[in-house]
Design goal:
The chain is α+β, with helices and mostly antiparallel strands. Helices cover 24% and strands 19% of the residues.
Amino acid sequence: MRHAWVHGGIGLAVAVALVGCSANAEVGGNRVANVTSQGGAAKKAPGRLGERLRAAMDELRFQDVLDTNPPSAAQIRSVQNPVDKEANLRVPPHTVAAPKPIVQQPQLDATIIELDKKKRPVASGTVLMSPLYQHGVVVPVDGNLSTKSVRWRQWDDAGWYRDKGKGTLDVVPGRENAPIDHMLNYPASVLKLMVNFGVLRLVDQGKVKLDDTYSYAPTTTSSLCGGASAKTVRQYMDDSLTWSSNAASCALVKLLHDNNAVDPLNQTFQDLGLETLQLKGTNPVNGGRWSNSVTMSSLDTAKLLTLIDGAPGRVWKDPRGKAVTSAVLSPASRRFFRSELSQQGFNDMLSSVNRCGGDYPAPGLPNAAPSRWVDADGTVTVMGNKFGRDVRPCNTKAEVTFAHKTGWVNNTGADAGIVRALPGKGGRSYVIVVFSNLGTQYVDEGRPATPAGIFPYTFTEKFAKLGRILDNQEKLRK
């Protein structure tokens, strides 16, 4: 989609002493997670992967970003939880003359799942950061890549300010006594992973075909979704995943509703042990009304991507004790899904390759920009959005592929994908997901102005730095 806005080698201290409560789990024989926070009664050694992730996030100091639209106390009291935020990116709600420091620790939710050469998960780490956990808390994850230690809550736009990052609406029932309390970030366009997964389930069930023409004819139009259209299901999916078309994604959501597939999709996520993945509240007549009732955690999103990647055999057990396998999608659907994600046009969050070689932002994941978006002069243009930097030097030096989906609104920045080393480039393979409330509303101090005619900077460069730090660590993994 086309957007515009008004505003346009870090060290890692791995050895840290934390006081907190701790729970350990094993995945593939590796200890993968601990709860460590600033409070609690016991002192435990932190989990390897989770603690590395937590330390990197903490050292990057996400709390140093500036807020371009800080609401006043009166505005906080009047803020409503909006729907279809993606349709209103051009007009921030509370513009100030100069950005101000963010009022509290940002809300972040990040997961890494390490994979072996056969795509099997061998270790994981999940970290939550918020005003409640200012230095981050490592989530305990069991051998099924699951946790019962978090009380997940829906995002609340006003509540993040008013209640210090603590939500009020539970996403998963029965977690009132969980030791960790976290308000999930609105997933923005990363929700399109759920939508496209659901459509491919319909394809595998023989209810639709990729090359069928679907006539999108909403009885009520919305600013998010636009008017009627007619394209193949394949084209809608390509538009949805590679350049984040909201109109195409609305058509796919409506296709799910037309086939009475939304409730079964949500139940499938529950059955697979992906309890926070919920595509709820959408409008069946046009596929819009995307709201905070649409939820995703980084852990469950990473697990979904592990299945899409095609991990062999039993990947984990579901809540009933049955094996969960990648056969939840057919091999052909998985290949198509991965191929679409590998053609992502917006490489500007955990990866910054679209802005290769500039002084800003910092280098991120070392992937190449997909050739379909690279112009003859080496610069990237995605559906008219020009990035203006020659990416050919970065493409030549690329070390990994990154099949991923980004998402952003004013108070969401999100990136979720599968990283795999190119031949001879270190051998690492992992899934990485980051959700945050640091969307287009937040900027780095001293960020340069966007050149005329160039797509505006979308995120703080701290995300790109995080991607580079974590990839350097994964590169050293044996």
